[in-house]
Amino acid sequence: MHPRLTDLQEHPLRQRLNNEFHARPPIPLVGAVLVSHLVFKHSTEKAAAARAHLAKLCQSHVCTAIDSADSHMMIETGAFRMRWELHTEFSSYTFFQPLTPGQELHPDATAFDAVMPEWIQGVPGKLIVATHVELRSTAEIDPESVLVGLTPNGRTMVAARVADDAAWIFTDFKIDNGFSRFLVLNDTLTQRQAGRTVQRLVEIETYRMMALLGQPVAKEVGPWLFDSETRLAALMDRIGKSQSAQDEREILAELSALAARVEHSVARTTFRFGASRAYHGLVMQRIEELRERRISGLPTFHEFMQRRLLPAMNTCEAISRRQEELSARIARNSQLLRTRVDIELERQNQELLGQMNSRAKLQLRLQETVEGLSVVVLTYYGSQLVQYLAKGTKDFHHLNTDMITAISIPVIAGVVAWGTRRMRKKLAAEESEVAH
Questions:
Q1: What does 38-50 look like in DSSP terms, one character per residue?
Q2: Residue 284 pLDDT
Q3: What CA–CA distance (Å, rounded) separates 57 from 67?
Q4: Cα Dmax for the chain
């Protein structure tokens, strides 16, 4: 008998991960729709504030939360529909407003006109993206009329037929009255296809702008990086011309300071360059998902990004690579210089040890000389003691004091020499035991 699922221990993240896999589905769109998409860049600390700010929106509207989670929420009201998403460094707010067929849009019209301006102004973060997507049918607006209205000397229009020729898309990626604009002319799109197409367009615009955040950083780091590379080359020239260990130590100190500055720059820019690389990949992925086909005489989205966005991304990639290479070069040269300094220190230590060895030999000779003098001195004092003793006993035995003293001298000298030598051997043996 197979166990029931209720009898099995479930991983605590199973449901959450599965729900995340199905999160943020495209919103089916029917008929004419105006979509206004706002993106606010903020720090991770503002994430909680961004979610808390959503509660204020429902204080003035009767809201119905659909598909609610910690990082995304769908809010439905009688006046508008809004989709909120929380990302690593930004939050997006997408408003949907149905349009009547043939309805003319005022240049200032937005899909969030029903939202109180105070709420929009209070959204945490700084506005980085604002775009409109106007979805119409080809029955309302003929694509050929749009193409005829394009003047040869006007703006560069980006256009393509997408989703296997089921729709037409027009944009120029310019900001007019605070918004960039997309016009989508639906020919045979289903409701979900229309929703996916609009979602891909707002994501293309969002990730395009987020990817471009790396370009100012690259331009800022570029001149400093050139100066650092020039300085490293100058330090390498100084290494070849250095004449003393002091010169090498000074160069090594400057190299260490340069390495610290480079590592600080790498740490400061790694996230930004890595994020730009990831956002650029998302832009190109969303464009590929459009399945676009060229409209004669107009660039496609892919061509436009290759010509306008890719150079900026290549600049970021080049600066990032140059920083990493500079850091590696500094590390190699620092190691080379440290090796030279270590070799010089070893040579000096060998010379010092040689001098110490010479001094030790000289001290040994002096010690041996002192030991020889000590034998003479001890022999002299010993013979004097023998002489005094002999003088004290000459009245009893009538001995010759001078002869006794003379005989005692070699005996005393031999005993003292033997004792000194034995003591020196004992000390040497103890020192050898301590060394082992």
A1: EEEE--GGGHHHH
A2: 97
A3: 17
A4: 158
> Which residue, 350, 377, 403, sits at the end of a domain?
350
Report strand pairing: 180-186 vs 126-137: parallel
Return the percentage of the chain with pLDDT > 70, whole number: 91
Residue 398 banded pLDDT, cuts 50, 70, 90: low
In order of 8, 98, 252, 379, the CA distances from 409 in angstroms are 105, 131, 68, 6
Backbone angles phi, psi at 131, to 5 degrees: -140, 150
Kindly report the pTM of this predicted structure: 0.77
Cα dihedral angle (269, 271, 276, 277), rounded to 10 degrees?
110
Instruction: Looking at the structure, tell me whether residues 269 and 327 fall in a common domain.
Output: yes
91-95, 97-101, 162-166, 356-360, range with the lowest pLDDT: 356-360
Question: Does residue 12 fall inside a structural domain?
Answer: no
Q: Is residue 166 scored above 90 in pLDDT?
A: yes
Mean pLDDT of 305-309: 95
CA 230 remoteness from chain centre? 24
Distance (Å, whole) CA 174 – CA 180: 5
Quote the number of domains for the chain.
Answer: 3
How is residue 1 annotated by DSSP?
-
Domain hosting residue 223, numbered range:
214-350
